[in-house]
Here is the input.
Amino acid sequence: MTAYGGVEAGGTKWVCAVGTGPDDLETTSFPTTTPAETLGRAAAFFAAAGPIAGLGVGSFGPIELRRSSPAWGRITTTPKAGWGDTDVVSPLAEAVRAPVAFDTDVNAAALGEQRWGAARGLETFCYVTVGTGIGGGGPANGALLHGLRHPEFGHMRIPHDRARDPFPGVCPYHGDCLEGLASGEALRVRWGARAEELDDPGAWELEAHYLALGLVNVISVLSPERIVLGGGVLKNETLLPLVRANVRELAHGYIDAVELGDGVDAYIVPPALGDRSGVVGAIELGRDAAHMISI
Amino acid sequence: MTAYGGVEAGGTKWVCAVGTGPDDLETTSFPTTTPAETLGRAAAFFAAAGPIAGLGVGSFGPIELRRSSPAWGRITTTPKAGWGDTDVVSPLAEAVRAPVAFDTDVNAAALGEQRWGAARGLETFCYVTVGTGIGGGGPANGALLHGLRHPEFGHMRIPHDRARDPFPGVCPYHGDCLEGLASGEALRVRWGARAEELDDPGAWELEAHYLALGLVNVISVLSPERIVLGGGVLKNETLLPLVRANVRELAHGYIDAVELGDGVDAYIVPPALGDRSGVVGAIELGRDAAHMISI
Here is the structure.
């Protein structure tokens, strides 16, 4: 079987894999430190893993993914220290000597869920992750959505009642955008506890309210056929049911769709691949990169 | 030349046309009264206008546009009195005896601007209209976006500072959603003046702020290559420059794109077809309906 490579290049950790699909992946994982060290570890993994026909990279961002740009393959304006204007693709391409596809981490995760997970057969849907930050992406009319640059769901503006929640938000660019109010980092700063240690029901009710406002906006703009909602913050088991109930209440019957009413449990779903959506999707990007060269 | 028919079925007025493109249209226009009267006038126009190869209908909504649904061709849950659950397509199809394409009024307007106007050559962009209500649509990856049902830009939630603006909003479903705060109807109720008579600079600054919040959310979710911004409320000449300035300020350099900085004047643009985007796009839907049958 032809093998492909994948990199889930996250802001907190990277996962590298070689294989043909979710069931036979050889993987390694390491924290995101400096660009030189992190890219070096990824390149060493692929050098040791043997030949692949194509490599897919799903990266945190913002990134440059217009092939016509001289900056293609770079992380651009990220607030992450040390990673601004970093060429991610070139060192990896040199290590694997195979065609490389480059996309956002969330588009890669959506592709993984589309081909192997909770969104099989769908042409317009979203993958939304709530972890250290908040991101979202996915295909629209069958192809991963890029447009002007790429979606940045986390930076939409949502209602913020400062009487109920005076927290100013943590986004260095926008303060109280969705990511600024509801990311794992926002939870940590607001409550003084990491999401996995936070057990105040009021905190999770507020979190669900913000995430539901964000999802209602995604539904208003993109009209996804399904929303796959993942990321570390969703490991709190009370959160997903609260998000669904809040979305249903906010939608308020305006659009006549069972998915926004009694069928909401099948509309907003966890990733079927769990934590592996991103790296499985990166492998799929690698498969597509190999295919695009071969035709 | 083969002629096509188009209907811009708006909530305030309908425009019907026969022709081949923007330069040779024979049109008629009448107010949206009852379904029977309005559909009857449209049918009479087409009966008198002679044969067409296909008819396109761009309708206010929400509408049912899934071909697999028995309710295809209907306006569904609209708050407009008398128009809930109205079959729009059947009476028109009977009058023209030609294939019919059915889409939202804003998707039709986007198609008009894509083929003949301000968005030529673009595959992912939005048309946003601010009139009695607020709507938005357009193609994503080349095809008009439908997804679960269809986009409903007007019903996204945006920050609403009740200290600055205590107005509760006019949306019967959501109160202070974007349409509830910033539609022409919201202006009329809040200020006691129709948009064309409103000359309070503070009112227009607030309006621009809300519209910019909505557009920043559209940019975060859909990443359009351009935004065509039309509708009656934009006839106020101070508004578009204010919207552009607010979008630029809200984006705040997070995405490294000239379109959200110095190039914003070419990114958020008025419709090149003026008030005719919708009916010209409906003609294009009619062209596509004829083509889909002929292949």
